[in-house]
Amino acid sequence: MINTFFRLLKLLKKRSGILYILGFFGFIIVGTYRQVFLALVLKNVFDTVVIGSIEKLIVCVLKSLGIIALLSFIQSSLMYLMRRMVVHIIGDLRKDIFLKIENLPIKYFKNRHSGNLISRMTNDIKVVERALSNTIFYLVYLSICAVAVTVFMFFLDFWLAVIALVTGVIAIIFNAILAKPLRVISKKIQERLGDLTGILSDLLAGITVIKVFNLYKNMASKFANINRQVYHDSLKKVKTTAILDSLNVLGKMLDTIGVVGVGSYFVFKGKVSIGTIIAIWQLKNPILNFFNRLSNLIAEIQIALAGAERIFEVMDESEEPKKYQHLEVKIIPNLDKAIIFENVDFGYLPNQWVLKNLSFEVKKGKKVALVGASGEGKSTIFKLLMGFYPPDKGTIIVDGLSLASTELSEIRKKIAYVPQNAYLFNGTIMENIRYGKVDATEEEIIRAAKIANAHDFITSFENGYHTLVGERGAQLSGGQRQRIAIARAVLKDAPILLLDEATSALDAESEYLVQEALDRLAEGRTTLIIAHRLSTIKNVDEILVIDGGYVKERGTHEELMAIEQGIYRTLYKQQYKVLRDVKVS
């Protein structure tokens, strides 16, 4: 907890932390002085009333009002300065988390829900912002102010100050005991809220599937279970806070009874003046305010620290390296080869190999298809080529660049990728195509769209290239989304093209248009295709059959069909039989 707190304070270094500290402690000093000054004013006013001097009373009140107004203005200015810096600090933190998530390796996202990360960027940052701008400040301010006025109360009357101090110490002890349970409960609540955000994200992204498969009860049950856990944890938090509140109220009542009772006795005995009693009563207000708000402030700080821990968990994750320096650098004469895999081993988990001793080459400008049953490693080969994972052993060369000695950004510049289900960002069609080349002109974008067979349908929209595609491209059909993705790849103009069966989920008309666009895109480029429908790869230059993590068969369609009992021939016949049966039925 202490480490988390100090890490929060270190955020001040990124901005002019001195300004935050100036506002923070400046307000505390001025505010504390104002409380003591107000008590002195009341003492002087009531003592003057007892004396009966109207002239002195008027002068005292007018001077005091002027000084209090000035102190209030200074306090407001210092508070503005402090909170202004908090706005900058939180903005920087939000940006840092975004950049951190952007640079995390693909494997980080494999077992984590996006909703949980979204919750950390929203809910957790919100509670941290509240802590820096309000909670921590008020806790320190009220604590210092309570101590300062207690010291001044000693100056006015020793025994009344003792009464206030004893009740205060008791309250602090109770709050310290219950602080840790509050932090643990608060962290659980924040984690559960992240899970709820994840379920809501699933609901919004998968609403079609939920409706078609009647998953209402299933989703509602998941939400209800976690929501119930949040409810129970929140009840624990409420109960703990209520105990703190009751103890603090008790302390306040004891303090009030002690000061009023003993103070009245001292007045009757002539040991203190009426003005002194009024001053002490005024000085009790900061102390009572401290007791009243202490439990809530501590609870809020525990929530903020729990949120900060979740944020720092992300910030402490290892980023994707610029290049995989731990790999063995091996020089391979590439000659005319665009892609080289030599003796590559890889597994997502230790000793569970997906690829084993995989070796193959793709010559520049050639079309090569990867074929095999599901789970044999075809998509894994793509992920290795794009640098999402390092191989456990072996050498990978991409257009003459070794994965072991080249920055991943340079490797990825060589590759254009069209997935099976194209992802479009929430924005316009033009913006989505421009992601292929961020400085592309409008003419270049239109040219890419024409090559991708997308220009005609784009211009049929009222807003043309400025049409909003919606979240994940929801406003467009599957074929239209694929053609936008192809236009993006055209614009990138990379020498190597990776196609993950980009037509498998389309109807016949869309498939024809997309396939035609892909053929244009592949012209003059090295193309590696993951093939699910074998009828689409008859004309490629070579087919690699992946089985057991390595290349089991290779050759043209005709060569592989000539192999009796061959894997490719068996797969092709199975697909042909299924298609024939479908046509007959």
Automatic annotation (TrEMBL):
Domain ABC transporter: 339-573
Bilayer topology: Multi-pass membrane protein
UniProt entry keywords in alphabetical sequence: ATP-binding, Membrane, Nucleotide-binding, Transmembrane, Transmembrane helix, Transport
ABC transmembrane type-1 domain sequence ranges: 35-302
Coiled coil feature spans: none
Transmembrane parts of this sequence: 20-42, 54-74, 131-152, 158-178
InterPro entries named among the record's database cross-references: AAA+_ATPase (IPR003593), ABC1_TM_dom (IPR011527), ABC1_TM_sf (IPR036640), ABC_transporter-like_ATP-bd (IPR003439), ABC_transporter-like_CS (IPR017871), P-loop_NTPase (IPR027417), Type_1_exporter (IPR039421)
Compartments where located: Cell membrane
GO cellular component, one term: plasma membrane
SUPFAM superfamilies the UniProt entry points to: ABC transporter transmembrane region, P-loop containing nucleoside triphosphate hydrolases
Keyword match Membrane: yes
Highest taxon of the lineage: Bacteria
GO molecular function: ABC-type oligopeptide transporter activity; ATP binding; ATP hydrolysis activity
Keyword Secreted: no
Protein name: ABC transporter ATP-binding protein
